[in-house]
Amino acid sequence: MKTKERFVWLVCTGCDTPGRSRYTTHKRQKAAYKLEKKKYCKFCRKHALHREKKL
Ligand SMILES: [Zn+2]
Question: Which of 3, 9, 43, 52 would bridge with 35, disulfide CB 3.0–4.6 Å?
Fold first, then answer.
């Protein structure tokens, strides 16, 4: 069975300006959940929660 994947942005939630720190990732097409990952943000200079944002 094929699994379609699509690309999404993970955007830092700690930044004053949303979208400054972005990571690209991918997830399954029909996944209902929102992706949230702790990533290092060079603008916050710490690990911050990055939340999914659609392309
Ligand atoms: Zn940040």
Answer: 52
CATH superfamily, domain at 5-53: Ribosomal protein L33 (2.20.28.120)
- What pTM, to 2 d.p., does this model score? 0.73
Ligand 1 centroid, distance to 10 Cα (angstroms): 11
Q: Using one digit for the tens of pLDDT, what is the confidence trace for 7-45?
A: 888 999 998 876 678 888 888 877 788 889 999 999 999
The sign of the torsion formed by the CA atoms of 29, 4, 22, 49 equals: positive
| 42 CB-near residues (< 8 Å, 6+ apart) | 21
Q: How far apart are CA 47 and CA 55, in angstroms?
A: 23
